[in-house]
């Protein structure tokens, strides 16, 4: 798959994002720093991913005169993290658009089959009118992201973006194939999945490293 030709796939090459991902990969990076880095990367990615957010003109009075000036229509944005690890990316995006609504989708990967199992779904009202940013640091087999997006579509969501920090080629291909309409943002495309469906070289288990479990 030649990703450069896919208009709905963005693979970041910004040096700040690459640098922070290298720090994330380091097994000696502790929970506190790991969490901070995930938030910073999400903010940097969000800056680009939200470049088409709708604006509305509002009246503002400057010290000189009144004028109509564009502002983000913030209530039109929904951030939907895939629990747990996706939560780590929410604050970074909220720092850009504090008025965004936040939904949650709970999925975990079965350890043997690697298939996602759904346990929670709560989405903001009028989801069909919103730009939706689904967050999850890891796109491995692609099963969790693909199922979360199917669920959002079943609730009426249409304008969907998916943001991850590390993707495998297998996961990226699967997600793009199942949801070609979804704009996918990837911090770094890694080499492959191993037999346990972990991304190589990856960063290990993102949820455990964000929350300090295990
Ligand atoms: C991880 C990760 C993704 C999923 C990716 O979550 O955060 O949600 O695995 O794998 P996939 O692309 O093969 O579906 P996990 O199931 O470990 O749950 P957690 O975030 O609660 O730890
Ligand atoms: N989930 C993770 O957290 N890391 C991987 O490498 C694969 C799935």
Could you describe the 3D structure shown?
The chain has 214 residues and is α/β, with parallel strands linked by helices. Helices cover 29% and strands 31% of the residues. It has 6 helices and 13 strands. The chain has helices spanning 15-25, 31-49, 90-94, 143-154, 169-178, 206-211; strands at 9-11, 55-61, 66-72, 77-83, 101-102, 104-109, 116-122, 131-135, 138-139, 159-167, 183-189, 192-193, 199-200. Strands 1, 4, 5, 6, 7, 8, 9, 10 and 11 form a 9-stranded mixed β-sheet that branches. A hairpin with a 5-residue loop joins strand 12 (192-193) and strand 13 (199-200). Helix 1 (15-25) runs antiparallel to helix 2. The longest helix is centred in the first third of the chain and has 19 residues, at 31-49. The model has no long low-confidence stretch (mean pLDDT 95).
List the defining traits of the structure above:
31% strand; single chain; 6 helices; alpha/beta; globular; binds 1-O-pyrophosphono-5-O-phosphono-alpha-D-ribofuranose; binds uracil; nine-stranded mixed beta sheet; 214 residues; 29% helix; two-stranded antiparallel ribbon
Give me a quick take on this structure.
This protein has 214 residues and is of the alpha/beta class. Helices cover 29% and strands 31% of the residues.
Q: Beta-strand level of the residues, as a percent range? A: 25-35%
- Elements, N to C (H/E): EHHEEEHEEEEEHEHEEEH
| Share of residues in helices | 25-40%
Q: What overall geometry do the principal axes of the alpha carbons give?
A: globular
Low-confidence stretches: none
- The radius of gyration is 18 Å
Structural class: alpha/beta
Count of DSSP H/I helices: 6
Arithmetic mean pLDDT: 95
């Amino acid at each position: 798959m030649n990703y450069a030709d896919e208009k709905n796939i963005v693979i970041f090459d910004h040096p700040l994002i690459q640098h922070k991902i290298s720090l994330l990969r380091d097994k000696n990076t502790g929970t506190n720093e790991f969490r901070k880095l995930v938030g910073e990367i999400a903010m940097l990615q969000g800056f680009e991913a939200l470049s088409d957010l709708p604006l509305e003109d509002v009246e503002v009075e400057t010290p000189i005169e009144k004028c109509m000036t564009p502002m983000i229509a913030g209530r039109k944005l929904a951030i939907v993290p895939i629990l747990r690890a996706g939560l780590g990316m929410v604050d970074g995006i909220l720092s850009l658009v504090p008025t965004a609504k936040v939904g949650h989708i709970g999925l975990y990967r079965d350890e043997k089959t690697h298939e996602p199992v759904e346990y929670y779904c709560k989405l903001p009202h009028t989801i069909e009118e919103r730009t939706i940013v689904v967050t999850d640091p890891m796109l491995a087999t692609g099963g969790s992201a693909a199922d979360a997006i199917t669920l959002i579509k079943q609730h009426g969501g249409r304008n969907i973006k998916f943001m991850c920090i590390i993707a495998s080629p297998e996961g990226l291909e699967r997600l793009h194939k199942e949801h070609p309409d979804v704009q996918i943002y990837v911090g770094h495309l890694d080499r492959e999945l191993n037999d346990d469906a972990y991304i190589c070289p990856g960063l290990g288990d993102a949820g455990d490293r964000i929350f300090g479990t295990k």
